[in-house]
Amino acid sequence: MLETFTSATNSPYDDAPFRSRLSFDLDVDICVVGAGLAGLTVALEAARLGASVAVLEGRHVGWNASGHQLGTVMPGYSLPIGDLIERVGLDDARELWAMSKEGADYVRAAATEEAMPGIALTEGALEVSNVDVGEMLISRLQTLSEDFETEVEGWQLDRVRDQLGTARYFHGIYYPRAFQIDGRKYIHGLAVLARRAGARIFEDTPVVSIDSSGIRKRIVTPSARLRASHIVLTGNVHLGTPLRRLSETLLPVWRYAAVTEPLGDRLGEILAFKGSVVDSDGIDHFRIVDGDRLMWASPETTWDARPRRFGPVIQRRIATIFPQLGKVPIADVFGGAVGVTVHGMPQIGQLRKGLWVASGFGRQGLNTSAMAGQVIARSILWGEDRWKLFSPFELVWAGGVTGRVAGHLIGLWGRGHSAAAGALARYREGARVRERVREARLAEANRQAGTRPPRRPPGEPRPVRPQPPRSA
Ligand SMILES: Cc1cc2nc3c(=O)[nH]c(=O)nc-3n(C[C@H](O)[C@H](O)[C@H](O)COP(=O)(O)OP(=O)(O)OC[C@H]3O[C@@H](n4cnc5c(N)ncnc54)[C@H](O)[C@@H]3O)c2cc1C
Fold this sequence. Notes:
By secondary structure, this protein is of the alpha/beta class.
């Protein structure tokens, strides 16, 4: 049973068995800073390839976004595909997209019931449009399937509405190869796999400074020192003092989600689709969990707020999209900070010899962090250089406090714009329906009129009707 209104820091899922703090000096090949999705994937892959690895986590495994996400695994990045092509050209965009698919395949291969009991993998995700843009949908489908070799299906309005039981959405793109897992089990499962592969994970061990100048780099924590040939920074927006200038290239966006109490059979009667649903404006993201609960992410802030504040907001959001459900009881609210870059692509690569970064995965971190972990481990141990494909996406300062205010305003504008565009699209749809009814009525009236004698021209005397014979 889920605890009512838990926050990011006291969720009942945060019971990872890696509690030891680093209290002795250590020498390793690779030191990973941060035990989120990115850090643990780097650690797992590097340990599998034979390196000695230490992961230093300031709080505990999955403390931030990685332990508080919805578990939807889709191809691609936070940056829309059209913008990606515009930025790097079709060939590199295809290669980057293929890497994002490899990331999704990596998660699928790791998230098996044997390796991670209860991971509950289910297939298929649907991206729905708030507005009626049929032509754009066709061109996007072509781009995805022909240029980017991604399995997709276009769903017409009737099918979307039939499956989702709401009139809020128009068309949809169905990704049969996308899937969802229990996101919280996945992060702890990754930690178990990394430890089994030989990586050592230390919790409650914040890295306070690093000296990356020499061949052997030095890492300082409050109670121990480390030396390593490579440091991988995966601290996301919380990295802080070890490299503040790097954290400042990320805009922190706190995203909040809720899980409802069991809603019974009526949920399945309304919402037939069992995969994840995301809207193309990136506002709502939901799916059914545990058979009859809704898990729903939507509100965002650019400051750290208590997740429980957002229970009523999500309740209202659910009632807006599914008025049939009304005000649903909320069992759990959680949230975490995602790192958003100015260009919308993750930060993956080598900052200087032996100093690596994997951060800024935004709202789509499962496939992208898995890919980053694999790419960085192979770059360090096999000398691969695919990370260079990310070089066009430089480290750009995210604007500090001004950036956060701007980010908040842009977020508000985006939501307002999406709501207005959605309302306008639904109004137009209603107007089209009313117009069709009016036309049908007119056609019917004309049809009936066609069976009557033609109309008398103005001024012409009224014809004398033959009188029926008088009855006796
Ligand atoms: C509500 C919500 C729903 C989401 N749903 C999805 C989804 O369905 N699908 C999807 O793909 N993505 C989703 N995401 C996004 C995804 O969760 C993130 O992109 C991803 O978790 C980022 O992982 P990370 O490892 O980069 O960062 P984090 O999870 O932030 O991990 C960084 C870790 O580094 C540690 N750290 C930082 N600094 C230091 C230091 N100096 N010393 C030691 N440790 C340090 C932190 O304590 C933290 O544990 C969601 C996010 C949220 C918030």
